[in-house]
Amino acid sequence: MSALISTAPFAYRPAPAALRFGRESTAAGGSVWWLLKRNCSIAPRQLLAFYASFCGLTLAIGAIFWLEGALLVLPFAGVELLAVGAALFAYARHASDHETIRLHSGRLLVQRLNGSKLEEVEFAPDWVRVEPRRGDRSLIELSGQGRRITVGRYVRPELRRQLADELRWALRRWQARTPTDDPSCTTTTT
Fold first, then answer.
1. For residues 45, 48, 54 and 57, what is the CA-based torsion angle, rounded to 10 degrees?
2. Do residues 125 and 106 lie in contact, with contact meaning Cβ atoms separated by under 8 Å?
3. What pLDDT, on the 0 to 100 scale, is given for residue 185?
4. Could you tell me the residue ranges of all domains in the chain?
5. What is the reported pTM?
6. pLDDT: is 167 or 175 the higher one?
7. Which CATH code, of 2.30.29.30, 3.40.50.300, 3.40.190.10, 3.50.30.30, is assigned to 24-39+97-175?
8. Residue 8 CB burial class (10 angstroms; 0-12, 13-18, ≥19)
9. Would you tell me how many other CB atoms lie within 10 Å of the CB of residue 123?
């Protein structure tokens, strides 16, 4: 009995029958895309409803104390609401952060949204390298043609290897396609 042990980080393993992170299109062209997003416990709309009810309750209690003669309760309640509002705004601003990777029509498009900043990098699939940034559980670096971008921020570190394997599998499958498999490539015969 023999075993193959690989010490190289992110050693190639074939992708499973069903992709864990990616989705494959069955339409012509067979694109593959990955949507990696933050695991948010509350949506921004729900957060706004919570904050509005919190403000109403805090201001009602502050108004009762103000009517009873405790004049400083209401200004401190206002400061508290501003501080909580600023923290919730920072949370809501990053609640929709995500990374999108799309392999289709002879290109690999990577988009990374962080707050209001959108970073977009496009690669030719034949020239992309998928590597760990530092170690086996680090972010995944996609590089090629003088450009690079890291992905995998919203994937647990122990699952990043599997994401890298899926990306490699999709890129190898794309490279193995013949021009007749790709509807975007048209050949004419005279």
1. -90
2. yes
3. 47
4. 24-39+97-175, 44-94
5. 0.69
6. 167
7. 2.30.29.30
8. exposed
9. 21
